[in-house]
Amino acid sequence: MRADAVRNLEAVLTTGARMLAADPGTSIASIATAAGVDRRTVYRRFASREELLAAIYDARLTAIEHAIQDARLREAPVTVALHRYVENIITVNRTWPVDLTRMLTDEAIRQRRNTCIAEVDAFLRRAADEGLLRRDRPQGWAGPLLPELVHLAAHRLAHLSPGQAADVAVDTYLRGLGGTAGPPCDRV
User: Fold this and answer.
1) Are residues 154 and 169 in the same domain?
2) Which contacts of 35-39 are long-range, i.e. CB under 8 A and separated by 24 or more positions?
3) Distance, CA of 45 to CA of 79 (rounded, Å)
């Protein structure tokens, strides 16, 4: 693909992700206009709205896979890997704000997503084994909490850089799940 074609495709996919997250009914023509390309260019590449959505979901999942790989969850020191992972996923969430759950009917997408989840879960077990995460929390609590904090950091802290937002998310995550338990909470 020519460099300009790659840039146009990237613009269509990232613009489409942003616009479809804000309004799932956004037209392909609106996406093309916002991306700065002719709508015929989009229709030549994607025969239907479903093909465009599939490409957006694939791009988001590929970005997640690269974010996990770049974080070096198996090799890097746990705190370094955690921060790098959170910062990377904040960037992914800001660039590709679409929800992957819509594509989970596609078996290949579901398998790729499950592989990503398994990789992060293995990392969190490593973090617990190394004493970074408390073991007195209910089983299965740390895993789902992390993406929720990352999502909040990506969108509620949009005024911060991904690194700064990751600082907040990681600090919140570790102080809530960190090595020493604080006083019990009297309120639910």
Assistant:
1) yes
2) 35/8, 35/11, 36/11, 37/8, 37/11, 37/12
3) 42
What are the C-alpha distances in Å from 90 to residues 7, 81, 184? 22, 14, 31
More confident position, 145 or 134: 145
**109 and 163 part of one domain:** yes
Note down the domain range covering 92: 54-177
* Residue 183 binned pLDDT confidence (cut-offs 50, 70, 90): very low
32: domain CATH number is 1.10.10
Structure tokens at 115: 């592989």
Residue 176 has what pLDDT? 64
Amino acid at 133: L
Q: List the Cα angle 149/154/125 in 5-degree steps.
A: 35
Query: Would you say 104 and 116 are in contact if contact means Cβ atoms under 8 Å apart?
Result: no
Dist CA 117 CA 114 (whole Å)? 5
